[in-house]
Amino acid sequence: MADLLIKPLTGAGNTVTIQDQAGGAILTSENSGATIANATLTTPTIADMSNFTFPAGHIIQFVTATGNEASIAGQRSSYITTNVTGSITPKLAGSKIYVHAVFNIGILVTSSAGDSLYTNIYRSGSSVTDEYIDTDGYDVYFEAAPRTSNAQWAARNPIAWYDTPAHSNTTDAITYTVYVKGGTASGCHVQIHKGHGKWTFQMMEIMQ
To answer: How far apart are CA 180 and CA 200, in angstroms?
Structure first.
C-alpha cells in the first residue's frame, strides 16, 4: 500500500495551505517545514498513569511536612518520639521512599563526662512492618572535659534514609517519625529543639 503524499509543485516558493472556514491559513508548507497559524492548542492531560513504565530513579511524588516542636530535655535511655513526622501514600507497588528530616538537636553536660545522642526514623502503617529503619550508631558524641558544668552543644541536624517499605498496596499511608535518645544519669542530657523548634520533613517516592 502506497503512502498518501500531499506536497506543492516542485519549485521554490510553492506551498500547500490548509485553511479554516473563514479562509484563514491554519498550516502553510515552506520550502522546508511548515508554519502553524491561528491554531488553538489545548494542554494535554493524563487521567490514568497506571500503564506507564517509569525509568528507575524517577521521582513519582514529593511530599513535605513542617512544624514547630516543643523542646525535649533530660536523660533518655530509650527512644522517645518527637512530632517531626510526615506521611506519604505510595502510588506504585515496589517503589522506595527517600526520607529526609531537618530539626534541632543538642546535648547538655553537667559533669566532665562525655555523652552521645542518637536519632532514628520509625516507619509505621497498615500495610508495612512497623520498625526503626535507621540502625546506625550515634549521631553526635560530645566530650565535655575540661569544662565540668553546663557544657552545651546544639545544631540543626539532618537525618535521611532510603527506605524499602515493602508496602502491599497503594491505598494506605506510610508514616515516618523521628525518635531520639541519649544522656546518662550522671548529668548528661539530650536537648531537642532548644531555642529552635522549626523542623521540616520531606519524602520522595522513587521508581525501582
So the answer is: 16
Cα(60)–Cα(97) distance, integer angstroms: 10
Burial class (CB within 10 angstroms; exposed 0-12, middle 13-18, buried 19+) of 102: middle
CB 161 within 8 Å of CB 178: no
Q: Could you read off the pLDDT of 127-185 as tens digits, one per residue?
A: 999 999 987 677 888 776 666 677 788 888 899 999 999 998 888 999 999 999 887 76
Domains of the chain (ranges plus CATH)? 1-40 (no CATH), 59-206 (2.60.120)
| CB 179, CB 133: distance < 8 Å | no
CA 110 to chain centre: 38
Nearest-angstrom CA–CA distance, 46 and 5 = 32
- Evaluate whether 197 touches 102 at the Cβ level (below 8 Å): no
- Alpha carbons 187 and 153: distance in angstroms, whole number: 14
Q: Which three cell numbers stand for residue 114?
A: 562525655
Measured between alpha carbons, how far is 77 from 61 in angstroms, rounded to an integer? Answer: 36
68, 153 contact by CB (below 8 A): no
The mean pLDDT value for 118-124 works out to 93
Residue type, 12: A
In the DSSP assignment, the letter for residue 31 is S
CB count within 10 Å of CB 86 equals 22
Residue 87, classed as helix, strand or coil, is strand
